[in-house]
Amino acid sequence: xxKTVIFDWAGTTVDYGCFAPVQAFMEVFKHYGVEPTxxxxxxxxxxxxxxxxxxxxxxxxxxxxxxxxxxVLPNEEDVQKMxxxxxxxxxxxxxxxxxxxPHVLEAVAQLRAQGVRIGSTTGYTDEMMDIVAPAALAQGYxxxxxxxxxxxxxxxxxxxxxxxxxxQELGSKSVAEVAKVGDTVSDIKExxxxxxxxxxxxxxxxxxxxxxxxxxxxxxxxxxxxxDRVAEVFRSxxxxxxxxxxxxxxxxxxxxx
Length: 257
Known about the structure:
49% helix; single chain; five-stranded parallel beta sheet; globular; alpha/beta; Rossmann fold; 12 helices; DNA polymerase, domain 1
């Protein structure tokens, strides 16, 4: 029986499409003369943000472009400078990207009515969550526990430690009673590393990379194709289950009783 559900934040419970960090990442790289693609920007999504920048910088194409522009390969000093600029840009927009996604508030209410505890992990730092959490609370969403990589020595996803800290804080007795829900491959890897039941959510995910308006403008066939593609990404990463929207989660977890 699942007694604890641990959600990701951006792209899973708030910020449809996970656009706040994407926008900031792309602006930072452009500032340094390298224009990343959307695919490159989103591939490490879910990681601690400084690790995300580090990962992007060492992607083969980006690394080559950096060398063309700067004459040398990127190094750790570059990572630190870029991260400082990233924080500046992200902090200026975060409060605008905290609206709960469709069906989230209803799903959380149903889970709580079933006695399920609500936890959370994120790629955001404590300072970032100091902006996101109050903005989400004002719109009706607040988990019972929030853990960032800062609380686990900076070892964010795909390490399992944020999941374990949630379990500790919420009194979970076994990984067998815990589910992790997220919208990125990093989320799936985190859940699998922790040994908990791991769920990928498709619509509004970072992996989908569409705004709600863009998704709703697709034809039925286009929506099906887009959803099938994302679902396959999650299954290939090891997800135990894939749901289209959060509306499906309470029923899915009830089946596990």
